[in-house]
Structure formats: C-alpha cells, structure tokens
Amino acid sequence: MKKLLFLLSATATFFLNACGDDSSSNAKNDVAGSSESIVDSEKMLVAYYSFTGNSKAIVETLTGMISADVVEISPVEKADFAANNYAIGDALIDAINKNPDDESSYPAITASVEVSFANYSEVIVVAPLWWSHMAAPMQTYLFKNSKELANKKVGLIVSSHSSGISGVEADAKHLLPGNNFTASLSIKAADFSSRETKIKNWLKAEF
User: Fold this and answer.
1) Residue 72 pLDDT > 80, yes or no?
2) How many Cβ atoms sit within 10 Å of the Cβ of residue 112?
C-alpha cells in the first residue's frame, strides 16, 4: 500500500503576499462523478481550512482523483481576517510565532467531524498561506492533533498569490516533527486554473 499524507495549504489572492481563503465543506467526501483514483491507497483523510474558497476548490479537485474522507476546520471566532489592512490575520500569526509551543497562542477552532486518526496512514491538510505562514486555524488543528498525526506521510500543497512556500513548509515540520514529508506542491494565483493538471502530475510523481 502506498501511503499518502498531503498537507495542502491554500492562500487567497487578497492577502497581500499571503492570505487566507474561504471555508465551507463536508465531512466524508465521495465526490460525485469523480474519476477512478490515480493513487493506489486505502482511505485517506483530507483536513482543510478555507477563507476565500481557494482551498475548498483545491480539495474538490483533489478528491476527484483520490478516495478520501474530508474534515473542514473553522475558527470559533468568525472574522474578516483581511480587515484593517490584514491586521487581524497578521496578529494571529504573530501570536503563534511568539510562543509556538503554547496552546493559548493558537486561535480556537471547530472541526466538521471528529475522526480517529488511527484509521489513516495518509492525511491531506489544506490551508491558506498567511503572511508567508500556514493559516492560523490550520496551525491550531495540527498543533492539537500532532501526537495523533505522528508517523504519517505528509504532502504539502500551498496555494498563494505569488509568495514562496518555505515558511509554510517550516510551520508544517515544526507542528508535525518527525513525519515523512513528500516534496511540496505550490499553486499560485497564475496557476489556479490549471490546478487539476498540477495536482494530478504531483500525485503521480510523489505517490
């Protein structure tokens, strides 16, 4: 069995060089009309946070190619994270960066479904890039579940307007130390319309 853990991180085009995106999905996902899985694997988990809708679109494209369950992450405190010249989202990231090992540094979240991580050797996590970092709500999810997610294969897909993804990769590796990470996939604004081809090629190359 080939293993797959995708850490997908997505960003909206309106967060200067880093942004969040919209959120709205379901728990268990079997996309209607999806094609046959291109990955030889048992069930995978996709966990994602979306603010503008980019992450959700990437998840929908991805789950048309693989068999996976899906959990949506949402912040308890709803806010326009781009408000006041992006000050809200920036403040959340700054709080995490100051004390990354302190649970109180992370914003409270809810998950659309509770899952048993023991059922998955592959997990797909989707989140926007904010200020060159992984979006704060997804950081919370990984921080809270780092022990349960240990020893799984991690693949990272980052959607950003134009920024590089090294900061998001660093966040993922700090939050999930010791995990087996694949090469990451960056989907920038200019590539968004061709995301299906990029995701398919990435899956075939890495898994």
Assistant:
1) yes
2) 18
Q: Where are the beta strands (DSSP E) in 14-107?
A: 28-29, 44-48, 68-75
- Residue 88: what residue type? I
Sign of CA dihedral 46, 189, 185, 82: negative
Higher per-residue pLDDT: 144 or 14: 144
Q: Are 141 and 7 in contact (CB under 8 A)?
A: no
pLDDT band, very low/low/confident/very high, at 10 (cuts 50, 70, 90): very low
Q: What dihedral angle (degrees, nearest 10) is formed by the CA atoms of 166, 73, 3, 172?
A: 20
What is the C-alpha separation between 49 and 75, in angstroms, rounded?
9
Q: Which two tokens stand for residue 67?
A: 């068999």
Span 6-206 CATH architecture: 3-Layer(aba) Sandwich (3.40)
- Ramachandran quadrant class, 86 (left: phi over 0; alpha: psi -120 to 50; beta: rest): left
Between 16 and 192, name the one with better pLDDT: 192
Q: What is the Cα 10 distance to its own chain's centre?
A: 6
Q: What is the pLDDT of residue 40?
A: 54
Is the Cβ–Cβ distance between 175 and 149 less than 8 Å? no
pTM exceeds 0.85, yes or no: no
